[in-house]
Batch of 2 targets.
Target 1
Amino acid sequence: MNHQPFETWLFEESPQDNPALQEHLQTCPTCQQTQQNWQAVRQQMQNAGQVAPRPGFSARWKAGLEQRRLQARQRRQVLIASLVMTTLLITSLAAFGLWAAFSAPAGVLVFLTRSLTTLLTLNPRDTLQWFNTLPPAVPLLFSLGLVSWLILLGLLGFNTLRRITRQGDERL
Amino acid sequence: MNPSESLWLKQALQGDDDAFAALVEAYQRPVYNLCYRMLGNSEQEAEDAAQETFWRAYQALRRYDPQRSFVTWLLSIAAHYCIDQQRRRRIPLTSIDDLLEETLPCPASNPETLTGQAQEAEALRNLLQDLSPTDRAAVILRYWYDFSEEEIARTLSLSVSAVKSRLHRARLTLAQRWQATHSQTPLVGRRQHESPAF
């Protein structure tokens, strides 16, 4: 059986003011039961009232605020460090890729083998010799990478200082 | 919002943490209650959710529109956070401590009254748990905070017609659930093994 629109009217704020609904309730036990159930639920909700937190809630919030700030600072530091490392790695790989692209494949192979041997032996004289064997493009690319990195770090530092200064101004 | 709360808000916007703590003190109860009802009467979860709500409000304070009620804005953050938590969790959890707190009588109170209150709290929790998180939030805002359908719509980022339909569905579910629970419960006055009354 379709109980509309009575079922909708049952949940309105003043169902007792609706004569059509009241008439329907006289003859419909299903809607009568629904109305009684809903009134019982409402009564239960009214009795429940509002629950308060344990005393000291705002003090715990303040303590939590300090902790969250520290965590946020640490996360920022980790993010910057990983950004720096990733860019360094990408720059080095790009520099090597550029150099390898302009060199003969055999030359690249020889260079890699020699570099690996030098690093494994860790002989200072060999290390110096290894630097001498580097193609002229490599120091240039390395310098370019280093300079771009210094510029990027400078910009990051400047931005941090600007934000701290602005925060300080706002607190005044 | 009273004048001192407007002042705290202004000071908090200028970076005064003590002023924001005063706002936390003023609005802790409505925010905590919403989290408590939404998260199935778990005190620890409600505490964590209420703390998270104030942290999010603190971070987003510059985006707060002063034309809007501050407590409505806070409740909106709390409701969205609790809905997200419920969607992630799906299975309602209750800590052993909370269960003990609900069932163990307080020496200062009348044990019979307290058991009745604990049973009522549990019954209400079970009723609300049957609703979807958004429907539950709508019911809580309607019956614990006397929010109008328009206010609920703004708080939960829904249309007014969606709120109306959600409230209707939720009321019907609660009424049906109530009947299902109470038709299974034996009569209170009759003891176990007692012969039925003719």
Target 2
Amino acid sequence: MARKSGTSSGSGSIEQLCAAKEILVSTGSGGVGKTTTAAAIGATAATHLGVKVLVLTVDPARRLANALGLEQFGNVETRITDEAFAEAGVRPEGELWAAMLDTKQSWDDLIGLHAPDPATRDAILANPLYQNITGKFVQSHDYVAMERLYEIHTSGRYDLIVVDTPPTRNAIDFLDAPERMADFFSSRLLRWLITPYRSRVVGFATKPFYSVADRVLGTQFLEDIAEFFILFQTMYDGFVERAKAVTTLLGGSQTSFLVVSTLEVAPAREAEFFLELLTERHYHVGALVLNKVLPELLLDSAATDSARLMARESADLAATLGPKLGGAAANTDHLAHVLSEVGESFLNYQVVARREAEQRSEMASLPELTVSVPYFEEDIHSLSGLLRLGEKIWR
Amino acid sequence: MPLLDRRLLFVTGKGGVGKTSVASAIGLLAAKRGKRTLVCESDSKGNLADFFGVGPVAFGPTEIRKGLFAMSMDTEESLKEYLRLQVKVPMLARIGPLAHTFDFVANAAPGVKEILTVGKFTWEVREDHYDLVVVDASATGHVVGQLAAPVAINDLVKVGVVRNQTDWMIDILTDPAQTGVVIVTVPEEMPVSETLELIARLDAETSIDVASIVMNRVLPELFSRNEEEIFDRLDEPDGQAALADLVGDGVSGVMSGADLAVTLRRSRVPHLNRLRDGVPPGLPIINLPFLFHRSHGVRATSRIAEALGDELGY
């Protein structure tokens, strides 16, 4: 069941997904190219389909921003100009927009949205813990990414939104973020904890906890926390409602997930795990995108035979070949070295290619569609590069 | 300061660069050289055990070979241990179900998870339980937050037991003779950029010393510049034909493979140079070769450890 790099197998295509879905979520472990993949798919969709596409990215390389012809990514949605496309030799049928997730700004906006009144909003924004929680909490990043996606989708400004996900240690964290956020605000413990700071009366049963907490963290610190959560509780209903809506959107029929991976051991394992988990939870998995796939010629048996001969008998080969080729190749020592290096190198890469082929066939059984992207010589840092990648996986 | 002579190494890097492999290899090498070594993964979702070919590791350290211990950070366990050892809380039962309490502490109070993590590592150093503690730390995006937590907490919490604790943690963390950060990277654009950014951030936001950069998966140079001419000659149609007469028709595939190898190597050279030119003077860069291995696991870890040993001159 050999597949060529740059082609797809299974039913459907990226084109069909882009035409049928409103949201594509690009997931995968760090360093596998999920941001680039998301941008490439978005740019290609804007090129071929007469639709308005937004690429929402969490953590773009600066050069990717340049690739899209943007001075810099911002929280503000920015259109990629037709001139930028023209430079890449393309006249897009639709529109391509791009935006980045600025966690802090998005949180501030969210507080503005949910706060019952300006006084509460300002008190929260000024709370020292708020800065810490929004800026440093990894989970807050996950949550606000999904929240922003929801907000943009609901606005109806785009036909298709391609979003990449925060680089989480565990690729599923962001999926649980809305629910966790809701749980957090509805936690009985939280209410219990802030009770004494509301009533200033601590029951006998709970006293030991507070005395320990005081000793460990200091009273002032606990009071700061309590104040923060008392303020936050005023927004409880809004948050829980939104969290539920975000969860519903991710599971809805308008949303599809792309699992992006390379065939290296660790990312592939995480991708497999994630594919299983998405399926188990009934999310729609549109495609598995495999990046940096080594070419199949490395598995060719005739080439293997030749490579072995070159590696093993380089001296004899060089003795015969050197005089024929002449020039620098007449130096048979150097020629022998080149021959053996070339042969060895082929066999070395073959070891990796074999392992990857095995890995690929294991993984390809999981989703409906698997697309493989060959190694590109260069990092992609231009719109034409993105489009070149996009075209490889489009149909 | 030789890398393995420090007491606490935080190994970080962008996702996918081989951070855990390198942390495991450092541990393996140190243990082989007679140091009592603890390798810790920063969260229980990690796969450190795979790199040593052992079953799952837990909060309580497992001796996986002579002098080499592995553990997995579990912040709730760390809190329990902390309360038991430091606060001397006699009856944990009296403070209610710890899991719930912990949920609050870890999720609500900023930096607490980080400090329980970093606190455990520094404590192992302070108590001299090991000669070397190697931490498979958070990825570049989060490691600064983790390492800066004791200082952040120190600023937030003005009194109490925690305040006293953070003081000695900071002493250990900021002493370059004891603590260092190892940044693992690969010769590609984003990993190198993130490495340079991380060096700048660590310098600006913490007082923790960067011990070394590990440039992982450096592809071999197939042949020298003067041999390139020979390769180009072979790659020409009549060169390939002459070679095919001797070794068969597979030659074109082999030459394409070599083209790929050369291209991959060349496309990475600018990133090697960018890193070398971008790091502060005197900061060592350890190059580890790309290993064309069949398997991963403990076999791969030992090969990386060997390569690391060679680079460090052991």
